[in-house]
Hints:
- By secondary structure, the chain is mostly helical.
- It has helices at residues 3-21, 26-33, 37-61, 67-86, 91-118, 125-154, 156-177, 185-189, 192-195, 202-222, 225-232, 239-264, 266-286, 291-320, 327-352, 359-389.
Amino acid sequence: MPLAVYVLGAAVFALGTSEFMLSGLLPEMADDLDVSIPTAGLLISAFAIGMIVGAPVLAAATQRLPRRLTLVGLLAVFAAGHVVGALAPGYGVLFVCRVVSALACAGFWAVGAAVAVSLVPRDARARAMAVMIGGLSVANVTGVPAGAVLGQSLGWRSAFWAVGVLALLGLAGVLLLVPATPAGPAEARMPLRQEARVYRDPQVWLASVTIALFAAGTFCFFSYLAPLLTDVAGLDEGWVPAVLVLYGVGAFGGTVLGGRLADAHMFGTLYTGLLAAFGVLVLAALTAETAVAIVILSGLLGFACFLCAPGLNARIFEVAGAGAPTLAGATATSAFNTGNALGPWAGGLVISGGLGYAWTAWVGALMVLAAFGGAWLQARGVRRSVVIAAGLPVTRPEAPARLAD
């Protein structure tokens, strides 16, 4: 794996810390900004909305720019957004800062993913994406819990200052260690209108919807994990960083294993991870008041969810990468963050409706189950395509499930 891929993964650490850290800061932010916890949770959705819009727009806008210059500029904007956010006088300014930071984050993901995939052979794409996603895993292990500790001891604004510093360190790493490659000739010759034709393929939409449902199910529960731990399970707030560390450890293990398995067994890995996440969320809903159970299940949820993530990313490049080298990474980023926006919003509706925090797990489980259905439909489409390409009747029993792998 080229060194530049690891550098990109390290830069993603700062992005991931910002994206996920609010899950451990919502009570403190709600109190300081004088808003409800569901309203504070919309700051997570605001970031996700910025990612949805920013990924395709910035991928298109920077198509002909040198990639390293683009990555450096986006990290600079991201850092500035967190400095302004740390100084924000109220909820409205902070909301705007989250959107602006997310736009830069989305652009970095879209361009960075394209760079990472371009640096490795086709059969190592899931592993390359696993390295980048590994930045998110490490953020969950260390960055998010550290943000929660800072928020509890020095106030939530200190966490925003810390992320700004991390972004500047990532900027220095990209500037020094990522090759100064210009936009490739293939991208320069392919008009965006031609790339957009890839969206005529139902498999691209099905892969995107599967990602969005998976992410929505995860974030519907994870976004409100901190108040669930304290208000439902009865744990002291000092336990929140520890549980977030456990989630991150599980996420890191899932990323490492998922990246290796998905290159060889794409759909088998997705089935396993999605069914495991569904089961964990159901158990979390049933045992939300049992502290020991919810702590253990938090770690298992991190493992199950991140077991899927490399394969879900690689699947987008598999169905869209050849016809849309610029928009493939943006499509994956937008799909994930569509779910990241819908999940906290759906969880907020459940909580505001008086059903309680445990019901975020029930709703999340249903969304993840729907994502499993999306993966199954994708595998069925792959089997059908392979059988047709082989000149066999579509209904023949000889079309085995292993073709989907």
